[in-house]
Amino acid sequence: MEFIINVIFWTLALYGLFEIIKNIIYISTYTNFKSDGIYVIIAVKNQENKIEGFIRSALFKMLYGKDDYVKNIIVADLKSKDSTKEILKKLSQEYECLEVLNWKECKDIMDNVDDS
What we know:
The protein is an alpha/beta fold. It has two domains: 1-30; 33-115. It is built from four helices and three strands. Strands 1-2-3 form a three-stranded parallel sheet. α2 (51-64) runs parallel beside α3. Mean pLDDT is 79; it is low at 28-34.
């Protein structure tokens, strides 16, 4: 019985080590960001009826799905004239990984990504 438990333990330990190495290789190979992590940028304009469902769905998929390396989500508001920006600000208080910016602030981040 002890032998079976040891085999299961070492199998799981090796699998975990393999997953860590695979993630390190994937992140270093397929990303060329010089900043902290991977950013997902979503641009929106006048989407008060759809934005909350879309953002919650995207966050759920990114945070609890297989994309666990994506932890920085920026929503750039393109001068919405409805309550889109207020809805996004409410969501950003619920989710610390979500940041709401205007399009100029978002452009500044993209322009300065190589400087960090």
